[in-house]
Write a structure and sequence with these properties.
The protein has about 140 residues and is mainly alpha-helical.
Length: about 140
């Protein structure tokens, strides 16, 4: 299991937008503020806009703003907006050949065991809100 770079970048961008609210921020400013690639960040910002987590404004002073209260944005929502796979991804390849019945059974066992872990991860992520992250960061400063 690897941590989601998209999730990390999205949360950093949301943090930046929360700290600069109510001023809209363009993707280059956000990218510079969080140490990210502006091109890749635009893709993530687009996904967040599509999922109504942030909104974009147009014009010379246009940019991105948080569309919801930071007390309402949880990590599971952000994760689902930017990722196309489950948080705990288990690659159980198909087993081919004869004499592989035990391997097939083991794949089924793994899928059942780890589906419970997936549910726990999702439930935990639903309990972590953007405001919690902001508060923790401020406590460490």
């Amino acid at each position: 299991m690897s941590a989601s770079k998209k999730l990390s970048t999205a949360v950093k961008a949301l943090y930046f937008l929360a700290e600069t609210d109510p001023e809209p921020q363009n993707s280059i400013t956000i990218a510079n503020g969080i140490g990210s690639n502006a091109s890749k960040l635009r893709q993530i910002l687009s996904m967040l806009v599509k999922n109504n987590i942030i909104k974009s404004t147009y014009g010379t002073n246009g940019g991105f703003l948080i569309a919801k209260n930071i007390n309402e944005i949880h990590l599971q929502e952000v994760y689902c907006a930017v990722e196309d796979r489950k948080a705990f991804y288990l690659d159980v390849s198909e087993v081919n050949g004869t004499g592989m019945e035990d391997a097939k059974k083991m794949n089924g066992l793994f899928l059942n065991l780890f589906s419970d872990i997936q549910v726990e991860i999702e439930n935990k992520m639903r309990k972590i809100y953007l405001n919690n992250i902001i508060e923790q960061i401020k406590l460490t400063n």
